[in-house]
Design a protein that fits this description.
Helices cover 41% and strands 16% of the residues. It is an alpha/beta fold. The protein folds into 3 domains: 222 residues, Glutamine Phosphoribosylpyrophosphate, subunit 1, domain 1, CATH 3.60.20.10; 302 residues, HUPs (Rossmann fold), CATH 3.40.50.620; 63 residues, no CATH class. The strands form 4 sheets. A 6-stranded antiparallel sheet has the order 2-3-1-9-8-11. The chain has a 6-stranded antiparallel sheet with strand order 4-5-6-7-12-13, covered by helices on one side. β8 and β9 form a beta hairpin. The protein is globular. The two termini are 40 Å apart.
Amino acid sequence: MCGIVGWVSFQRDLRGERTTLDEMTKTMACRGPDDLGSWVTEHAALGHRRLSIIDLPGGVQPMSVNPSGAPDGTVAMVYAGEAYNFVELRDELRRRGHRFETESDTEVVLRGYVEWGEAVADRLNGMYAFAIWDSRERKLVMIRDRMGIKPFFYYPTADGVLFGSEPKAILANPLVERTVTLDGLRELFAFIKTPGQALWEGMREVKPGTVVTVDANGVREKVYWSLQTKAHQDSQDASVARVRELLDDIVERQLVADVPRCTLLSGGLDSSAMTAIAAQQLGKEGETVRSFAVDFVGRTENFVPEDQRATPDLPYVHDVVEMAKTEHRDIVLSSADLADPEVRAAVVRARDTPAGFGDVDTSLYLLFKSIRQHSTVALSGESADEVFGGYKWFFDEAAQYIPTFPWLLQFIPKSEDDKPMPVLQQSVLSAMDLPTYINDRYATAIGGVQRLDGESDFEFQMRKICYLHLTQYLQILLDRKDRMSMAVGLEVRVPFCDHRLVDYVYNTPWSMKSYDGREKSLLRGACRDVLPASVIDRVKSPYPSTQDPSYARALQEHAKELLANASHPVFDLIDKDVLRTAVAMDSPQISEASRRGLERALDMAIWMDIYSPTIKVS
């Protein structure tokens, strides 16, 4: 796993811009702590930071080949990610006459491009974002994986393009203005993810499953993969068996690494199934799976059931550990850890945005930081809820038929105390007009859903809900996972995002996805034999959040310090009076909604300190 950057200019000589390329590459040091490299020619400059996973001595980048030997025949690449089927592809390329100098998947992808051109994307199984400068045709080719697991941003310029794994790499180039307009703020506060859109004005995201080509004639996009509606022919039993068959193959592929591996274990169905399968497979080779779980000081002993979280995680985690015989470690965090301003700043810097996930972000960052001391690669249960239908609102009739993104239903206040704190000034909220923005984005999003011939109205509605989760909601979570893990140099793999599994389950009727009347029926049925009964019977519980009131008190103290700096630019957006009211509340009485408001205000202040953005709200 790595960080990539680049600059293509058709009207200037980039050989004189090495210093700027180095500054861009430096921003990706967290993604690639093991090595760095650059490759510069007249019109293209590529930078790379490497996290060594496969072929530690051989996978150095940028990597280049010259298949014809001609002076202008070099093909150079910077690559981030993993191709899990690289062994099969390498064998096929050898049969086609290619000779390999390394054992890395990077070289397989590069020589695959030489053989098949942009169509190499159709043959890859994995998570990846890579850019290839093809001197033969004087063009840049940027390709992102089907599900958008790896981030990839670009910024068209007057005579070319800048690109990077993260916006910070692009922002390091003096050509870029750090401007955020209303559309950027809308994406930030609407809790949706419009494919292709970035927070920063002028910046774009390579969409999942897309090839972006840049040459002297401009920028072009081509979709090589998207969710397609197909008739499902298998019976219920055959579907359950197929899901298990796919999971066995996926986990086996994603366990391949030349560095220590582990699993993220929450005690839920998703991570438990993935951990149990991994333990079963490695056990055949005499190996033991390492597993890690997160918890908060006193949470398990003093847990109070909530609407979204009925049970604490650790009892279920330990049931899985006992059955799967993993080498396990609980990472227990304190409220002081979660509220630490330095940790908050690290999270905001990692995400490039004040994303507003609060302690859920900081705890994930600290969890990954602790894991990195023991392992370099981790397998996660992320995306199973989106693939198999795991959220409560999938079964809520109001959410099933609400004419908007169904996950937004969770933000509708259930009581006066649950009302969100209007942290933004009313003038900013009015200018954003989020209801209209969300409605417009929803109408565009569902336009991509294809209806199966003879599909009932209800099945089609559930297909739309699954489609929205896979194409938009999942993007929010994958970006969060990637940024928090790569900020500490940890590669997190997501088996449930394998496109073969996504394709198969997406086209399985909802009646089969919920055949036992519960969430994720297909996954439960497929993994029942490797899981303890407690986990099989457990109700879905989301990633944990602290219940300790001392965390809220710490937020109030930090907000009080912010209010003392009356000239801070954040108050061009944030309502001071609302923030003062939240600071004056009794900490035990602070609702989760008000706590989120405090977290959002503090995140935005830190973001402005780090990035000094120009905000345009008119």
